[in-house]
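In practice, a research group might receive sequence data for several interacting partners and want a quick structural hypothesis before committing to experiments. The following worked case mirrors that situation: the sequences arrive first, and a predicted assembly follows.
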Amino acid sequence: GENVEQHPSTLSVQEGDSAVIKCTYSDSASNYFPWYKQELGKGPQLIIDIRSNVGEKKDQRIAVTLNKTAKHFSLHITETQPEDSAVYFCAASIWFSGGYNKLIFGAGTRLAVHP
Amino acid sequence: GAVVSQHPSWVICKSGTSVKIECRSLDFQATTMFWYRQFPKQSLMLMATSNEGSKATYEQGVEKDKFLINHASLTLSTLTVTSAHPEDSSFYICSARNQGRRNTEAFFGQGTRLTVV
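A structural hypothesis for the assembly, expressed as tokens:
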């Protein structure tokens, strides 16, 4: 079945450093890849997404890259700040018959940014 | 971005009782809503997909008679945990998307922490 693997499970960086989280997906039909940030006790918040027709997307300190051939996509956070500390989830979207799709989530990465 | 409101944010109930959780899309019409369950320090596990005006599609292993889902309007879906037991204690999260658009992003509610005592 569909599977999304996410690494690392935990990541600790110093403030100002960059953080990279990587995901791989199994279904080549996947065509939408969002990233979510979840703070303790809250629902996930979409921070950036990428569709299969582009290879890279950037929004200020956050960027996402997609390699369709290798079925890899990555989240890059530059100039990290303590408020970036949270759990980050990648996801891949699969199309099913009937026209609707569902998100398959990675296991999550707990990012800690130390002052 | 679109707003999805989930209510209540937390609830404590006695074993054997039922609990209803509401998920509302406040500024868009959600033809499809998704219900997830999340255990501490774990990922989101999809429980069911709820389509407006039709029966929900449940994921394998999810008991449809225990987790009743109703999506009677384009802005509201409800999840009822029937005859709750302590093992049902978890963080329940809904998300909504306008299925009229391809690959549209999903917006999540703030989650409901259910504790069954």
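Before designing any experiment, note the following. Residues 2 and 28 of chain B are 7 Å apart (CA to CA). The mean pLDDT of chain B is 90.
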